[in-house]
């Protein structure tokens, strides 16, 4: 399921809420094993801009 691009914790909380996780805000603010951070540090949001 693709909910979009998270640009901050608020977006991630909303995506998890839409996926049916009622305690999404607690999952994001803690160290929940359900969240796997890729390509950077936890809670670090970067958007790559394509120059082409």
Describe the structure.
- By secondary structure, this protein is mostly helical.
- It starts with 8 loop residues before the first helix and ends in a 23-residue tail after the last helix.
- It has two helices and no strands.
- It is globular, with a radius of gyration of 12 Å.
What is this structure's SSE topology?
Elements: H1 9-18, H2 24-29
Integer-rounded radius of gyration: 12 Å
Described by the principal axes of the CA atoms, the overall outline is: globular
How many strands, what sense, and barrel or not for the largest sheet? none
Structural class call reads: mainly alpha
Would you kindly provide a brief summary of this structure?
The chain is mainly alpha-helical and 52 residues long. The chain is 31% helix and 0% strand.
